[in-house]
Amino acid sequence: MDLLFNKGLTMLVTMGAVFMFALVFLSILSRAFEQYQEKYVVKSMNDLSDMFLFIDGRQLLIMNICIAAFFVLLGLLFFGLFFTIILAVVGFFIPGILVRFFRYRRLKKFNVQLVDSLSAMSNAFKAGLSFPQAIEHVGQESQPPLSQEFQLFVREVKLGVPLDDALNAMAGRVNSEDLDLVVTATVISRQLGGNMAEMFETIAATIRERFRLEGKIRALTSQGKLQGWIVAALPLVLGLVLNYMRPDLMQPMFEHWFGYVMIILIIISESLGIWIIQKIVNINV
Description:
Receptor-associated Protein, mainly alpha, 3 domains, about 280 residues
């Protein structure tokens, strides 16, 4: 009887400990999920709304989960458990990476359009148009994304938003250094007075010169970037070749914890090497 009582008590204590551990784990997981929603999902939604793409946060979260589930299925079918976990993590963050990529591409296109728009606005000033009229005219003649930002600026001004506040709001949405320069110069010129047509022509010439210097730097550093990617890809290619030629030598690495530690260290070292090389060859003008 005492033995049965001790076993029952041990089982009860074990079940209670497991239950408490599950509660603590679920609480931590719930807090992590809330922080993820506040930081990652909200930031992605703000980036999408700045690009005039309005997607609900739940839709974005469902997209993340679906892509992660697809990568998990792909890993279970063709790879082992270790690579399945890596694919799940990568798949979960792919939507956020895509959002940042499209935002970067949109920003580059906006900066290119901004140079031509400054010249057009300078000509509009010479023709006697006011600043809001010049922006409205350029916005109607331009293509997205510049037309979207300029037309939204015009709507805000027509609704009674002060012109300086509307300019600062547009600069905050776009997050472009070139547009920040234009907004700052415009606000100062409106307050102190000056020839805005000549000012816009000077800014346009400055931005064009910076584009020329950036293109020259990209051409000079392209070889270094290519060498960095080739050196980073060599271990992966060599591993695939060895796995194809001598799978008996590579297979033990995926059957022991020491092999997984080596793979993790290789991934970390490769990522750190790529980051250092990109920092070396990335020169800001």
